[in-house]
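Before relying on records like the one below, remember that each one covers exactly one chain. Contacts with other chains, cofactors or solvent are not represented anywhere in the record.
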Amino acid sequence: MRKGRPDLVQTYVLIPGTWMGSWVWEGVAEGLRARGHSVHPVTLSGLAQYGEDVSEIGIDRHVEDVETVVAALDEVILVSHSTSGLVAGVVADRRPDRVVHSVYVEAFVPRDGRSAIDAFGEPLRSAELRLIEEHDGRWPTPDMEAVADGQGLTPEQAKWLTDRLLDHPGRPLTEPIRLSRPVAERPATYVVCGLEHFDGRLPPDVERLRSSPAWRFRTLDTGIWPMVSAPGELVALLDEIGAEVRGEAGTEAGAEGRTAPLRESEDDHPTPP
């Protein structure tokens, strides 16, 4: 831990992606806390237990779930995965006084007036909407083969993950979000998981963000579930991003005598499932 170095401590709020609760961040949260950071994993409404009534849960509820946590903290690094990128984008838009940086881990890029399902082209978009309708307003979980295929998971990790997934409330995925400013204008890091892009190509809306001076890109050599397949590597990357954010804040406050932090070498890695 970083004893005596509060200047290196960051506050992370971790938002799980589709079908998952805060449990998926256990290894990452453990690793970040071992490095002295404050970590707050969130479980979005409708994803805590089987059998919940999700009919009244929409995108605004998921935004409120995260915003409530963020509002009680200072200088938050908001980490999202998969479809929760839209939730993170809205929270950062609403609370720029609290969110200093966003990290999108293979996450959907938020765009004003668009939903998560809108990221799918036709006919896949219509097929997924039908699937949600056929499952009483829920997006059903994938099977273990689909979860594990080419994603760098061991059989044990794939089973651990698949056994815990819950059908996702449909409305947060189909309702459009609203942003006051384009996401490209807010400081962020996009984490590319290399095994998810065997041809090296990213979605066009993600690729366009490379031209934004507020965004940076990092890559992990693992699949789309890095919090399970490579938690130690993800912890190290988030720690580096936190140090960069703190360093940038120190540079901006140079007139007050603050200096950018130095990267410390640590070998703490959480144990994967």
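The chain is about 35% helix and 15% strand.
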